[in-house]
Amino acid sequence: MRQPLRFPWPDLDVDDVSAPVIAVRVDVIGTKDEVPDHRHRKGQLVFALGGAVTCRVPTGLWMVPPHCAVWIPGGMQHSNLATENARLFFVYIEPEVVDLPDRCCTLSISPLLREVIVELANQIADDEARVELLASVLLRELPRMPVQQLHLPLSPEPRLKKIAAALAKNPSDRRTLAEWADRVALSESSLARLVVRETGLSFGRWRQQLHLIVALRELTSGASVQQVSADLGYDSVAAFITMFKKALGKPPGKYLSGIFPEYKN
Fold this sequence. Notes:
Blueprint: E1 3-4, E2 21-27, E3 33-38, E4 43-50, E5 53-57, E6 60-64, E7 68-72, E8 78-82, E9 87-93, E10 105-108, H1 111-122, H2 128-141, E11 147-148, E12 151-153, H3 158-169, H4 177-183, H5 188-199, H6 203-219, H7 225-231, H8 237-248, H9 252-259
Parallel strand pairs: 1-3
Antiparallel strand pairs: 2-9, 3-8, 4-7, 4-9, 5-6, 5-8, 6-12, 7-10, 10-11
């Protein structure tokens, strides 16, 4: 059974703090940990220095591999699921002090900004001048970070929720669109139209996006390409690598080493 992530300040309500930026380090010890559904007035940047995090919001899943972060606007309901032994930083930002989208997005984090976030989390409260300087650098640099397409659109539509839950539980499930349509009592064409209308993607592309999110989460946690390929139900490692390269432009090793310099697999 997953246990909630342990914060170093369990009784602190970040919305009660007037500082424009609050940064805290959260280490996941051993097993996977989860922050249940919650919301706060401040926007939140979830940054992974090691391991990975999957953030769920009402409209989708957002993947946070190492050296990337997901931006969650203030007031949005969300939950965070971290991989084993993840090293995370949660950065809370007052609304309207940074020029970031009013929707979730995954951002690549530059080496400079990474060190700023780490330093902010290590600062003591009485060093106000240094905290203000670091916060100003963070607020200036964040809007310059490139967006990564590590997002799975979700829908509240009950039949799609049922399919999404089943695929999330068993990503290797290879049932066809026709088989899924039969399970949710729709015609194949009706289900195809429903998926496009609710997610903006075809069923095949939607399932592929789920595979990419699961693959990145597992690869950055130390799983091999061979293991991930098998876990996702691909007939061969080559087929998995072809899918990955077609979707993200590079094979897994090159893609991950580009956003995660320490990645080796």
